[in-house]
Every structure is written in C-alpha cells, then in structure tokens.
Amino acid sequence: MGCISINLRVSALVLCGCLLSPAVLAEPAADYEDWNAKFQSTYNWQRHPSYHAAYSGPNSLTAGAEKMYTFSATAMLGLRPWTGGEVYLDAEVVQGVPFTGNLAGLGGFTNGEITRAAGTSPSVYRQRLFVRQTWNQGNGSEKLASDQNQLAGSVDKNRTVLTVGNFSTLDMFDGNTYAKDPRTQFMNWSNWTYAAYDYAADARGFGWGAALEWYRDDWVWRLGRMSGPKQPNGEAVDLALGKHYGDQIEMEHDHTLLARAGKVRVLAWRNRAVLASYNDALAYLIAHPGTDPQSFFKVRDGERNKYGIGINLEQAVSDDLGLFLRAMKADGKTETQAFTEVDGSLSVGLTVKATAWGRTQDTVGVALARNTISEARRRFLAAGGISFFIGDGALNYGAETIVEAYYNLDAGHGIHMTADYQRIANPAYNSDRGPVNVFALRVHTEF
C-alpha cells in the first residue's frame, strides 16, 4: 500500500503538469502570453567510492562507498490578471536521500537539489506563490521568452519591477548564463551560486519577502528583503521581517567586449537573526569539556548581523564558448544561518556547446571551486566542535577544492541527460581526509 500511495502522489503531480501544459492545451501565441504552464522533473543519482580518512567525527562524510539520489517534479502556472501584473504558483513533489544520511561532511555539496530531499517517501509542498508588477518607462522594448515563471511578452528597456510573495532569493539575485541551474548545468553548490552567500531562506531554500528591480539602459539595480528560518537551517519561517531578515543589494552592468556580450554583478548582503558566534561557542566548549560539541545551542543568546560581498562575471568568447567567475567573502563570525559552511568562495569555469562534433544542443562544462572558512570557525572545529554540516572531531585545515566536469546531452523532446564528475580535495576543510571522487547521472525533462 505504501508503494501505491507514493506512486499515486508522484503520478498526480506529473498528470497535473501535463494537463496544465500549453503543449497539451491550445498553445498561446509564441510572442505574448496571458498565461502559461510549465513542468519539470529531475532525477539525480550520485555515488562516491571509499576514500582515505585518518579519522571521522559525527558530521564527517562517510569514508566508505555510498550512493545518494534526489527526485523532483514541479508544476508551474503563470497568469497575467491585469496590465503589467503577473501571478505565479509552483507546486513540487520531492524525494531523496543524501550521502551520509544527514547531509554532512562537505562545504560544497554535490547535488543542488538535496536541500529539498524528503527521504524515501515523496513530499508535496507549495514551492512558490508570488506577484510581479512591471512599470514600463520607455527607451524601446525587448522581448521576454516564455519560460518557467516568466510569461512571453514585451517590456520596456527602462522599467521598474516589484516581486512580492513566496520565492527564492536566488530567483532574483546572482544570475549567470553559464552557471546557475543545478538541474541542467553544474551540480555542486559551489558552482551555481556563491558558496559563501548565506542567503536568507528556509531549509528548502525559499522564503517570503519582496525584491525591487530598476532597469536603466545597460544597468540593473536590485534590492530585496527576505525571511530567514526561525532556527538556523530550520523549515519554520520567521516572518518578523522588521526584526529578523536577509537584505541584499545587487548592481548589474551589461557590456560588450570584443563584440561579445558579458555582464558584471556585484552583490552585498546582510542577515540579522538570533545566531551564535564561533568565539562564544568555542569558549563554552573549552569551559565545559565532555559536553555536547554542538555548543552553538548553548550560546544563541542574542541577535547578530552576518554579511558579505561578492562579484559575479560572465563573458561570451564565441557563439559556443562562455566563461564565468564568482568570488565572495563573508565575515565568518557567526554560525551558518541558512545555506552552507563556507566563509570565502571562488568559482571559475567555462561551458562549451558541442558544435565541433555536430551536437549543437549539447553542452560541456568544466569548473574549479575553492572554499575557505574563517579563523574563528577553524578554531572551533579544531577543538572538536560540531556545526550543522561539518565536524570531524579535529581539523588539519586546508581549503576545500572542487573540480567539476559535466556533459549535458540533449535527447530531444525536452529531455536532457547529464554525466557529471566531481573531485573534492580536503572535504570539510580537513586535509587528513580525502580526496573524494563523486560520479553522477542526471535525467531532466521540461516542457
């Protein structure tokens, strides 16, 4: 009966996506839509063989060989109820099991969907529900293509856009043509956003808030305030946005270099929440030997600010080749609030269309990422401290370095199949462990 229930729940969402899809019903005009419906599903299977580990702790990545997987299916509906207004609703079913069983042992996790994994039984939830209002302000027009959470139509090049509701901070900030979507591009967290960007969100990566965008010629300015979790890395959302929040501001500039398009983005963020500092957690650990090494829980005694700044570059080199770079530095004084255990991140890479061997819709990607942590976090971990995702009981510090390469095969009819390889040196910043080799296969479909 359990298997039947699981299959029915998954099938119901898949059927919902099919019934809503413009590919099944009368398709709206390609250049303008009053509504659209999209659907995606992604299955990601990963395995790492056994690797060297001089020792292991409560939050170490398992040293023996293991497998993990995630599955997601999402139905997305968009409507245009008034001039300049849009409303979007996404529903999603997720299922999956991480390495180690508790999502531990790495700064740069290997699967971008794993935050929404819900165990071996599927979980259905509302992913997004938001309103978008555009005020056009002249200077010519540009077309927007029909896409997930985007209606086809024309907008002025100069415009102001307000988005309010339930969505992800990453829906609005830190875009990048070549490294953004873990369902079709790079899988590792370090390569599809800033790993040091502890953006406000619940445990699945979403929240409530508002974002304002101001487009002027080659410039875009964005600012937003989003809700964080009531407890770090928890699912319950803190809606006291006047007291606890995540603020971000981003500047984006489009340019042309050697007749090729590129973009530069600079992002600054600040979170305010009830968080523990590493120095306080370490002091408690030293003063109370033999107690729970997760001493964060004992010293979460007040509101603190957490902040960072980063730069994001993308540049087309040819019709087939594009380059990207992201770098961010966070203050590193407090525990992780909502994302991962990284205080400084650098990611560089490229993607190439497979035109050279006649596969114009296939893509090859290669990236190198380097994650670091602050001195305060290092001292805490070296003393045997345990945080949410990492903690080997000791620490021989080294920057966590990740090489990732993938081949995305376009199989037609909206189906993409990807083979991916990741090599992680110094997992969780510990040179007494690793390197870890991770092999992955991913199947993604959308319409």
Descriptors:
447 residues, Porin, 20 strands, 16-stranded antiparallel β-barrel, disordered N terminus
Architecture blueprint of SSEs:
Layout: H1 2-20, E1 35-48, E2 66-82, E3 85-97, E4 119-136, E5 141-144, E6 153-156, E7 159-167, H2 169-172, H3 189-192, E8 207-216, E9 219-226, E10 228-229, E11 237-238, E12 245-257, E13 260-274, H4 278-287, E14 303-316, E15 321-330, E16 344-354, E17 359-372, H5 375-382, E18 400-412, E19 415-425, E20 436-446
Antiparallel strand pairs: 1-2, 1-20, 2-3, 3-4, 4-7, 5-6, 7-8, 8-9, 9-12, 10-11, 12-13, 13-14, 14-15, 15-16, 16-17, 17-18, 18-19, 19-20
Helix pairs in contact: 4-5
Can you put this structure into words, describing what you see?
The protein has 447 residues and is mainly beta. It has one domain (2-446): Porin, CATH 2.40.160. Helices cover 10% and strands 48% of the residues. It is built from 5 helices and 20 strands. The chain has helices at 2-20, 169-172, 189-192, 278-287, 375-382; strands at 35-48, 66-82, 85-97, 119-136, 141-144, 153-156, 159-167, 207-216, 219-226, 228-229, 237-238, 245-257, 260-274, 303-316, 321-330, 344-354, 359-372, 400-412, 415-425, 436-446. The protein has a 16-stranded antiparallel beta barrel with strand order 1-2-3-4-7-8-9-12-13-14-15-16-17-18-19-20. β16 and β17 (359-372) form a beta hairpin. α4 (278-287) packs parallel to α5 (375-382). The longest helix has 19 residues, at 2-20. The two termini are 31 Å apart. Mean pLDDT is 92; it is low at 1-28.
